[in-house]
Each structure stands twice: as structure tokens, then as C-alpha cells.
Amino acid sequence: MSTAKVIEFKPREGRMADLDDGYTRIANELYDALIEADLTKHQQKVAHAVVRLTYGYNKKNDRIADSQIAEKTKLPRCKVNTAKNELLDMKVLILDGRKIGINKNISDWNITKSYQNSNKIQNSNKVTKTVTKNVTETVTTLLPKTEHTKDIISKDNKDNNILLDSAFEIFYKAGLPKVSKSKAITSFKTAYKNWKSENKTPEGFAQMLAEDIQCRLKANIFGFSNLHPTTYLNQKRWEDELPATAKPKQPQMSPEQQREYDMYLFMRGED
């Protein structure tokens, strides 16, 4: 007769929180306001993550990348970026340079239900057919479009245009006369499309142009300081041979340009 072997299972140790492992010190009034705020699930998770990554380290604000928030919230980075920008728009979060934190001035918070309503409609798979004309138009506006290939390409083009518009400002402020801006930005996009480079990015192209412009201005090339940005781009003047007296240098941005560029990187969620 065979005997059964008795196996003893050790009870699984429970997960226990302890103040000795660290804690987040935050004013009750501020935390109560955050609890009461009519935010979406993603907005709440991002707001709490910012609290944890700032007050949890005895800081009021800090440089926090979207990837850090994504790791805390277990949300995709793109959804983190969307929720973060919504919270900034509502002034629940505020910026200090490239540092982000909770806005302690609760009276400044401008929480509307527009994001809530939009989120609920986007998550709904059915819409009642018997609706009035006005409601139908509202629902049609808020419902997400099917992600066909054409829609994805259109979205990519829109994102690329945003990057090009931001990079154009670096070029436009490099030192040439600020004239015919609308024509210049069209020429800038065309020139970028035709630009041959291994590491091709809009900001890289703009910085290359800014470096060239500053180098030629320093060399006092006759008539260059009066050259229109559109003419410079259309004629590919950066390909002209530099005079022997001109020494290329790293592009220098003004403090204002640097702040704008830092903000551009931050809104993209880059560390």
C-alpha cells in the first residue's frame, strides 16, 4: 500500500505598508482638494504620481519625465502626456521652468467637465439613435474617428507640423530680418523635407541653420544682414562657401529662446 506524502505550504507573507519605508508629507487641505477634484481616472493617477514624485522626496516640484510617471501609474506614455497637459491647462499642475508640481493655490484650479464628458463619450461604444439634431451634432464632434491608415497618416502629419512650427522659431530668431513669416515657414518646411542628413530632426535642422546664420552675420558678409528668411531658405544659402574669416561655432540661443526650446521639449515629454 502506498502512502500519501503530505506537503506543507507556508502561508504567503502579506504586503504591509510601513512609515519606516518612507511617506509623503502634504498639507491636508491640498490633498482633500485633490481627492474632491472632478478629474478623469488618468488625470487622477497622473496628479497623484506627481505628488508622490515631489512631496514624496520633500520637494514642491521637480523635473519629471513622462516615462517616470508612466512607470508609477502603469499608463502608456502617450496617455500620461495627454493627462499631464490637461492638468496643466486646468492649473492643477504648474510649471517652474522645466520643473512640475501641484499648484498649492487651490483657488487657481480651473477644473471643467469638458475632459470628463469627452472621456465618457470616447469610452462609449453605443450612442442612442433617437436624439435631436443638436445632440447628434455634439456626439458626432466628440466621438473618436476610426483609426484607418489614412487617419493615422493625417495624425502623423499633424504631429510633424507641430514639431516643424516649434523648430521654425529657432531659425526665425537666429538674426535675419523678421519679415514675411508665413512665407518663411512654408519655405522652412520645404527645405527641411529636401534636407539630407543621417540624424534628421526639425530642431536639428533649425539649429544648423541658426549656426550658419550667426556665423555669416559675425563675418559681416555684405548684404547678408538684410537677407529675408524666405530668400535664405529658397536659395539654400547655408550651402554657400563661408569666407576664410568666418569660423563656425556652436549656435547660441538667447535666454528667451532657450526657455522656449526647453518648454517645447517638456511638452513632448522628453527628459
What key attributes describe this structure?
271 residues; 2 strands; mainly alpha; elongated
Give a verbal description of the structure:
With 271 residues, this protein is mainly alpha-helical. The chain is 51% helix and 3% strand. The chain has eleven helices and two strands. It has helices at residues 28-36, 41-54, 66-73, 77-89, 114-122, 133-142, 149-172, 181-194, 202-218, 229-234, 255-267, and strands at 93-96, 99-102. Strands 1-2 form a two-stranded antiparallel ribbon. Strand 1 and strand 2 form a beta hairpin. Helix 2 packs across helix 3 (66-73), helix 2 (41-54) crosses helix 4 and helix 3 (66-73) packs across helix 4. The longest helix is centred in the middle third of the chain and has 24 residues, at 149-172. The model is unreliable at 120-132 (pLDDT under 50).
Question: What is the compact description of this entry?
Answer:
The chain is mainly α and 271 residues long.
What radius of gyration results from the CA coordinates? 27 Å
Q: In which order are the strands of the major sheet placed? A: 1-2
Query: What best-fitting shape do the alpha-carbon axes yield?
Result: elongated
Total number of strands: 2
Sheet with most strands = 2 strands, antiparallel
Low-confidence stretches: 120-132
From N to C, what is the helix and strand string? HHHHEEHHHHHHH
Query: What does the average pLDDT come to?
Result: 78
For the termini, the CA-CA separation is: 69 Å
Helix content: 40-55%
Number of helices: 11
- β-strand percent reads under 5%
Structural class comes to mainly alpha
